[in-house]
Specification:
It is found in: Membrane. InterPro entries: MetI-like (IPR000515), Na/solute_symporter (IPR001734). It is a multi-pass membrane protein. One of its GO terms (molecular function) is transmembrane transporter activity. Keywords: Membrane, Transmembrane, Transmembrane helix. The chain is built from 4 helices and no strands. The protein has one domain. Helix 1 packs across helix 2, helix 1 crosses helix 4 and helix 3 runs antiparallel to helix 4. It is mainly α. The radius of gyration is 44 Å and the shape is rod-shaped.
């Protein structure tokens, strides 16, 4: 309370110097008795201000560390989930491609079997046209081989394209996550720096007021 009264008196001294001379003349007798108590209160208030600044800085550092740890853990969890999802998608795509290839091979085998059966029946029925049947058989086998090769090449190209696209998506997601982590960390550090600077400025201003009061 004495410190507050001294601060108000100092402010009034600055605003009303003439009246301050009268107050000073009238209160010269009481100032000698309260000088010791004002000096002790100013020293205790300055020490309490230092303790408050230290506590605020420690709390700010702890908050920054906790926020950074939480953000990093969340980003790691997101990266793990994204990688797991991408791996599952790649495995499912590969399984689907293998199943498609097997189905195509089964169809080709069935077609070949049917063609061979037809050729055999034609051979049995039409013995006279043996040369024509041989030519037809060779042409059919050639067509089947060409179809099989084309189908296998197309499936392989599709699988490679899908895998490349998935890898690009994973890289883009990882880069975006890293950028978000960096932005969040920089923002948190900036906020903490601003808060610490404001607290230090407030503490410094409080110290100036106490010094002025002790001089008065």
């Amino acid at each position: 309370m004495l410190w507050i009264e001294n601060s108000l008196l100092s402010l009034r001294c600055v605003l009303e110097p003439r009246r301050y001379k009268e107050i000073k003349n009238s209160s010269s007798s009481s100032s000698s008795s309260s000088s010791s108590s004002s000096s002790s209160s100013s020293s205790s208030s300055s020490s309490s201000n230092v303790v408050v600044v230290i506590v605020v800085v420690v709390v700010a550092v702890v908050v920054v560390v906790v926020v950074v740890v939480v953000v990093v853990v969340a980003m790691v969890v997101v990266v793990i989930v994204v990688v797991v999802i991408v791996v599952v998608v790649i495995v499912q795509t590969a399984i689907a491609a293998v199943v498609t290839v097997v189905e195509l091979l089964v169809v080709v085998v069935v077609v070949v079997v049917v063609v061979v059966v037809v050729v055999v029946v034609l051979r049995i029925v039409v013995v006279v046209v043996v040369v024509a049947a041989v030519v037809v058989e060779l042409l059919v086998v050639a067509v089947v081989v060409v179809v099989v090769v084309v189908v296998v090449v197309v499936v392989a190209v599709v699988v490679v394209i899908v895998i490349v696209v998935l890898i690009v998506v994973v890289v883009v997601v990882v880069v975006l996550i890293v950028v978000v982590v960096v932005v969040v960390v920089v923002a948190v550090v900036a906020v903490v720096v601003v808060v610490v600077v404001k607290v230090l400025e407030m503490a410094k201003g409080q110290g100036h007021i106490n010094g002025f009061t002790s001089i008065v």
